[in-house]
Write a structure and sequence with these properties.
6-stranded antiparallel barrel; alpha+beta; 6-stranded antiparallel beta barrel
Length: 406
């Protein structure tokens, strides 16, 4: 019995001691945890406070980048200006006249307004004038011309001359406003894939002096041009093709090479939703002789026949047979719709309704081909012409006279 009691008493003492040990162990854990919290939290709070008062500074680097493109642009950009075409617009007086304080007469009055804008390139200073080359369509029908300079100053300009066949024009302003004069390069030396830069004012003067880059896509391209607005091609313009962006307002601006030389005057762009990167520029070697003649004469003197032309393909088969009396195997040529009295054609014996099929040994299938041959000649040159006259093939010699192109 005593043994049993001692054992039970020992067990109760052991259980009592275990409970006390657990209690003190837990109490010590709580105290240690509290101390850790007390020590760590202020450190975290202080660290956050330090980040707020002492932010980490980011180093900003400044690097000036200079490339062949930027050098070329710097040489020429100030020679490219904006051109505004200002025209008169007729306005009728208020039909109520003096009832509202206005004039009581019924005469029309006019006001001037901006008709359009484009770009131009200062290429020469002489005799107190600065000469600017641009496109004919930029200055066409203008009553006044205004030049916008790189510093946004606007000055009056005068028309010197235009040529619709090459879409070129020359205007002038006081030379004191020209700070930079562009230099022409040799467009015949351009290579396909060569880097070029277009400078101009796309979509108006708000984007003045915009620069786009690209390459020469093609050096010997021809683009049909409708000169008289009848919907038919009158001329094939020889142009440079580039993928540098050329938009409305870029017309008349510069296409330059990496030497900063003007190798083209931007003129045309195919604007279709399905076509991108297809721009055209008049080669500098075409531009230089034209603007020189415009400076001297205001117009370009070209040889003339004194006739009006219709392509044979535009004439119905009935009239080809009954009026022109052509053999059935003749399907191409140029019909003389009219022959002016005293003209080179009349003096050579060419008559109305003759059909020219050859000029100076070259086949003539259209009026475009005829003009290309004709305009390669000089005033006073003699050319040999083969034509069907009343159904018979005849040969005539014609001495070319002069005409002044518009």
């Amino acid at each position: 019995m005593g043994y049993y009691d001692d054992t039970e008493h020992g067990r109760r003492q052991q259980k009592k001691g275990s409970k006390v040990g657990y209690f003190f162990t837990g109490l010590i854990g709580v105290i240690v945890g509290a101390l850790l919290v007390w020590l760590i939290v202020p450190s975290i709070l202080n660290t956050g406070s330090n980040n707020t008062t002492n932010p980490v500074k980011t180093e900003q680097l400044s690097t000036e980048v200079t490339t062949d493109v930027t050098k070329a642009v710097d040489k020429t950009k100030d020679a490219v200006v904006g051109i505004t075409n200002i025209q008169k617009r007729q306005t009728a007086n208020d039909i109520f006249g003096g009832a509202f304080g206005g004039s009581t007469d019924n005469r029309d009055s006019s006001t001037t307004e901006e008709s359009g804008s484009g770009s131009g390139v200062i290429y020469k200073k002489a005799n107190g004038k600065a000469y600017i080359v641009t496109n004919n369509h930029v200055v066409e029908d203008a009553d006044r011309l205004e030049v916008t300079l790189p510093n946004n100053k606007k000055v009056e300009a005068k028309l010197v001359g235009t040529d619709q066949w090459t879409d070129l024009a020359v205007i002038s302003m006081d030379e004191k406003y020209a700070t930079t004069v562009a230099k022409f390069g040799d467009s015949d030396k351009l290579k396909q894939g060569e880097t070029v830069i277009a400078i101009g004012n796309p979509l108006g003067l708000d984007l003045y002096g915009s620069v786009t880059t690209g390459v020469i896509s093609g050096t010997e391209r021809t683009v049909p041009m409708d000169i008289n607005g009848d919907g038919n091609a009158d001329w094939n313009a020889e142009v440079l093709q580039t993928d540098a962006a050329i938009n409305p307002g870029n017309s008349g601006g510069a296409l330059i090479n990496l030497a900063g030389q003007v190798i083209g005057i931007n003129s045309m762009k195919i604007s279709q939703s399905t076509v991108e990167g297809l721009g055209f520029s008049i080669p500098s070697n075409t531009v230089i002789p034209i603007i020189s003649e415009l400076e001297a004469k205001g117009k370009v003197q070209r040889p003339a026949m004194g006739v009006s032309l219709i392509d044979l393909t535009e004439v119905p088969a009935f009239y080809q047979k009954e009026t022109l009396k052509l053999p059935e195997d003749v399907t191409e040529g140029v019909v003389m719709a009219q022959v002016e009295n005293g003209s080179a054609a009349e003096k050579a014996g060419i008559k109305q309704y003759d059909v020219i099929v050859e000029m100076d040994g070259q086949k003539v299938g259209s009026s475009v081909e005829l003009r290309k041959i004709l305009y390669s000649k000089k005033v006073g040159d003699s050319v040999t012409v083969k034509a069907y006259q009343d159904g018979k093939l005849v040969t005539k010699t014609m001495k070319l006279t002069s005409t002044i192109s518009k």
